[in-house]
């Protein structure tokens, strides 16, 4: 996992823990282990997929992903590139990632998905995913928007 933004000096340990959590979720995905994937989420988490499916709770997220890992997503990995990580209080963080789902062995390409994670430190001291919203990136639509209305281009891309 690549990180684009340095961690605040006073949050290095928390930053490392959040990054480790995201790596664990990607490792569970690559292993096709829905139970381990679901364990990365809180009991009341929400997962909104880029096709618009809403899953609730780590157990359901794990169960549904196991079915996906056994079928449509069999033999895939989840590439994540951490773009931004911000902390809001001692036990809450928001992470933005770029990435994609790839067939194992496929060469990495341009990331086609963005995801926003809300992460929380639970009572056991471990960070978990409380919510994730995934959005499919549409580079052609972005390019058209930026060309005809340059003021829509983000300051940092």
Detail the topology: elements first, then pairings:
Blueprint: E1 2-3, H1 12-31, H2 34-38, E2 41-48, E3 54-56, H3 58-69, E4 76-87, E5 92-103, E6 113-121, E7 127-136, H4 139-148
Could you describe the 3D structure shown?
- With 157 residues, the chain is of the alpha/beta class.
- Helices cover 30% and strands 36% of the residues.
- It contains four helices and seven strands, in the order E-H-H-E-E-H-E-E-E-E-H.
- Strand 4 (76-87) and strand 5 form a beta hairpin.
- The longest helix is centred in the first third of the chain and has 20 residues, at 12-31.
- The chain is globular.
The percentage helix is: 25-40%
Beta strand count: 7
Could you tell me the radius of gyration in angstroms? 16 Å
The overall pLDDT, averaged over residues, is 89
Note the beta-strand portion.
35-45%
Unreliable segments of 5+ consecutive residues:
none
